[in-house]
Specification:
two-stranded antiparallel ribbon, alpha/beta, 2 domains, homodimer, Rossmann fold
Chain lengths: 220, 220
């Protein structure tokens, strides 16, 4: 994994949004072209931002013509990894872990949780949806040579960091962390945190904004 | 709830990021000022975007001086609802629901799940963490006059829409939907979807980008 350069999270999110926007546009017109300004306007970004983001994927538009929607869409699909399947290891077979295992859309979207680990002796050796729960102590041996690139951490906060280290030793390139604790990973590993508090905070923001804006307008 | 104007999701997300950035800056210097360009540069947005977003909260900068960091931070805290607590009703006491109920950080951040509903007769009447699980059929009666503004949907996909309608009838202003199905809400209600597939997709994007960028550079 040496020598990987990391894309900033906001850039990756925008690339994903460009991919979806281009897909919608392409569905209407296979031969469409779009300028960076049009693509940016559709999503609320400046054309400079769009051009900068697309240099990350080595994509250049043609002055006065813009990007071919179909070509850019295909390139983004490949670059964003949507043309292949992904194997993941889940650590933690508690409430969150079980919810993820029963989530049918993962398989539909070509994300396969092929290994499950837990530390509870009563759980180890049992199966969930035909997947045997293995001992968390065996992560490294179990994951060697099994083509798992993503790790999902769904353990209590205090175990998140040691579990992350085991996954990284085993060679995963990306970690999705559901534990409510910040974990440290080397710069060669991609980390994504799912923070339910932040999600609820965003929703409350919106509800609050809706009810306060009318009052604010008088102050400006 | 009539007459609410809705803030676009990307704007709300940026306001939240401005709030955090301003908090960090304020911690270093209580008397700091920041221009829209400085705030935008710190987060990767154009100064025009920042100025536009801040008009949503009725906040104007002073030409040549910028915004007072402390004042803008205080205003955003109030407008974003971080100066008060929020009560939520949870519908669905399955894996996701139980995980949310055991999530200690909600209470720390002043989000309180004060009512829990389920449709399973074996579950109704039992308690989780001192909260009695009530019948989903009684949502409207139970929620009237109890100051619950947020609803959390953690039921199977096919029940998500009818549950959303019950919550809206009961007067919630915001819904957090964990069910893997798109639900329809009136424009007066704020909807936020938690899509684990999208989250995993983003992570895979990043891992894939890291490993493909070096190849792409040759093509541009």
């Amino acid at each position: 994994m040496d020598g990987k350069s990391k894309i900033p999270n906001p850039t990756a999110r925008r690339l994903s949004l460009y991919f979806r926007e281009l897909g919608d546009r392409r569905a209407l017109d296979e031969k469409a072209t779009m300028s960076s300004r049009q693509l940016g306007t559709a999503l609320g970004y400046s054309d400079a931002q769009v051009r900068k983001d697309l240099t990350f994927v080595g994509q250049l538009g043609h002055p006065g013509v813009g990007y071919s929607v179909a070509t850019l869409h295909d390139n983004l699909r490949r670059i964003l990894g949507r043309d292949r399947s992904w194997n993941a290891a889940l650590v933690g077979a508690g409430n969150i872990g079980r919810a993820l295992l029963s989530y049918r859309r993962f398989d539909e979207q070509k994300f396969h949780i092929t290994r499950v680990f837990d530390s509870n002796p009563r759980t180890i050796g049992t199966t969930i949806d035909q997947r045997v729960i293995r001992d968390v102590a065996s992560i490294k041996e179990e994951l060697v040579d099994c083509d798992i690139e993503l790790g999902i951490i769904a353990v209590p906060a205090e175990h998140a960091q040691p579990v992350a280290e085991k996954l990284i030793e085993a060679g995963v390139g990306g970690i999705l962390n559901f534990a409510p604790r910040r974990i440290e990973v080397p710069s060669t590993v991609v980390l994504s945190n799912v923070d339910f508090t932040l999600t609820l905070e965003q929703l409350a923001f919106q509800v609050n904004l809706c009810s306060t804006i009318s009052h604010e307008e008088d102050d400006s």
